[in-house]
Design goal:
This protein is an alpha/beta fold. Helix content is 33%, strand content 15%.
């Protein structure tokens, strides 16, 4: 598959770039995408939730009343779950939500996500660019020229460019990733994936092995 390369004005150039069919043209595996996105979302959870069971609630050390002769059910503590001020039954406790995903499944998930975008013509290739200083205006102008303003966009740069990252920091759902450092979740939540030409070459090289 070949795509046109656009310049900073949003116009087609005479250059075309080749997309590796082993990456952008496979039959997508929905289950692999689901597994990878599930693991990514799980790793974002803090897991610091906690409640106090009966062993953690203060008080209740003395038996509230004698065992027999009162006509009431026997009670050993006022901090049992059925008492007001008692402990919580089966409440959440701190835990780690990390899910292990095989490396091959992660790679397959990213290939599947990219194949979906390529199938829907949601991949745009632009010339390599960088800014001497952060400029939201320039980056916004590029998105407007590509008719992608106010849409969720994933921008894959050729290398680590702090000025481009800062330019997109206050833009609506514009995520910037360094060439191959994007995840399946980044691809799927974006409406369109914009890739610099060098980033496409890097993706073809790394994921096409």
């Amino acid at each position: 598959m070949k795509l046109d390369v656009y310049n900073q004005d949003g116009k087609k150039t005479s250059t075309k770039v080749e997309l590796n069919d082993k990456i952008f043209g496979i039959e997508p595996k929905d289950h692999a995408i689901w597994l990878d996105v599930k693991a990514i979302m799980a790793s974002k959870r803090q897991g610091t939730h906690a409640t106090k069971g009966r062993s953690y609630v203060s008080g209740g050390g003395r038996k509230p009343f004698r065992q027999k002769g009162t006509g009431r059910a026997r009670q050993g503590s006022t901090r049992a779950p059925h008492h007001v001020g008692g402990g919580r039954v089966f409440g959440p406790s701190p835990r780690v939500y990390y899910l292990k995903i095989n490396k091959k499944v992660k790679v397959l998930a990213r290939k599947s996500a990219l194949s979906y975008k390529a199938r829907d013509n949601k991949i745009v290739v632009v010339e390599d660019f960088s800014y001497e200083s952060p400029s939201t205006k320039k980056l916004k102008g590029l998105l407007e020229a590509l008719e992608l303003n106010n849409k969720p966009v994933l921008l894959c740069t050729s290398d680590n460019s702090p000025s481009v990252v800062k330019s997109a920091s206050n833009m609506y759902r514009v995520e910037v990733r360094d060439s191959i450092a994007f995840s399946t979740y980044d691809i799927m939540r974006a409406d369109t994936v914009i890739m610099q030409k060098s980033a496409v070459d890097k993706v073809n090289e790394v994921l096409g092995r």
